[in-house]
Design goal:
Two copies of one chain form a homodimer.
Chain A (H helix, E strand, L loop, with lengths): L1 H12 L2 H11 L6 H12 L3 H17 L24 E8 L2 H10 L4 E5 L18 H8 L5 E4 L5 H14 L5 E4 L15 H9 L11
Chain lengths: 215, 215
Amino acid sequence: MLMVYSYFWRMNFSSKLIEQAVDEFAALPGIGRKTAYRFVLYLLKKDEEEVRKFGNSFIKLREQIKYCENCHNISETQLCGICSSHSRDGSLVCVVEDIRDVIAIENTAQFKGHYHVLGGIISPMDGIGPAELNVETLVNRVKRGDIKEIVMALSANMEGDTTNFYIFKKLKDFDVKISTIARGVAVGSELEYTDEVTLGRSIVNRVPYENSLVR
Amino acid sequence: MLMVYSYFWRMNFSSKLIEQAVDEFAALPGIGRKTAYRFVLYLLKKDEEEVRKFGNSFIKLREQIKYCENCHNISETQLCGICSSHSRDGSLVCVVEDIRDVIAIENTAQFKGHYHVLGGIISPMDGIGPAELNVETLVNRVKRGDIKEIVMALSANMEGDTTNFYIFKKLKDFDVKISTIARGVAVGSELEYTDEVTLGRSIVNRVPYENSLVR
């Protein structure tokens, strides 16, 4: 009886239309089938017009999105607002993994330079090598000679370190200073809960006391 | 300086296209702006064709979804697989809130009757009253005379109880037995962690020992 019901449930019960929509939602990062189903049921309660607006917003985004030709940030014009701004310092370029990191750093209000968005990070397991990233355009920007310092602001993990090293090798023969954002204990955290590697680095790369004061 | 950067970030930095897509995702239940952004960045890395398939799956679902004319379950035919099956007992009808509950009950393999999907639950705070639910069609089904028992399987909360009461009043003058699914301690749980209301009900509505044995 249990076998019949299971078969029955799979074959007759759920609709292909529903399953396709659930599959699409379940492919989003961090979303399992149960949540995907909840999303689908939510959409089914909306008007057709609202759901068309929902679905089309993504299609429209993907078809119309443009990128800054200088830094690969999202942009509605050829040059993004940051690259074309006279109040930013174009001799300082911060290299980031993706758009979200540009927003994160902008939110700190501690950086006045330009960016370079790699579009990812070297990760052999995900099939992402240097060729899939915006590395050549970074080299070309450095060749133009206006850049004095490159700040590497990638994730402080193995893929980030690998990417840092690759880019360092590519740029070290040019007349440009290469730095990375500091590793250390997070503001507000206790030493007891800091892992040993980070703690070790925080000692080796210690800074003058005055630098640690929040301005 | 901080004010200028905040203004700059909002005005020049993020694209309207991105914001619209983020807004759509953020309207999904349980999804905040950070997760919505993560979804958008995920989609931006996909091919245009994949994103079209993504967006269109929801539009197609909403435009083409059909419901069983008897029980309001999703169905690709006028009568769903359950309502048209000869091996199901049409004299026993289980009333549920939505499609997901039909699946949940089917998964127990303990129910052989038909369903009636209300499409929601009475919730004044959400603006859902009886008129927004499939109550009249339930009454009509009962009027047809084939139904011997209605099993109320709504959530065991205030909205569920309110809906139970409303439907009970609507149906009590008909020759139909009305029951609700049992409240009690969850299988596998400890008495210590059961709330007092549920514990009280489990005592008042106690069942013969033999019923508690798993078959």
